[in-house]
Amino acid sequence: MADPYSTLGVARSATEAEIKSAYRKLAKELHPDKNKDNPRAADKFAAATNAYDLLSDKDKRARFDRGEIDADGNPTAPFGFGGGAGGGGFRGQPGGGFDAGGADFGDIFEGLFGGAGRRAGGGGFGGGFGRQAPAKGANVAYRLAVQFIDAATLAPQRITLQDGKTIDLKLPAGVETGTQMRLSGKGQPGPGGAGDAIVTIEVKPHPFFRRDGDNVLLDLPITLDEAVKGGKVKVPTPDGPVMLGVPAGATSGKTLRLRGKGFTGKSGQRGDQLVTLQIDVPADDPAIRALVEGWQDPRPVRAHLGV
Question: Domain spans of the chain?
Answer without folding.
Answer: 138-205, 210-293
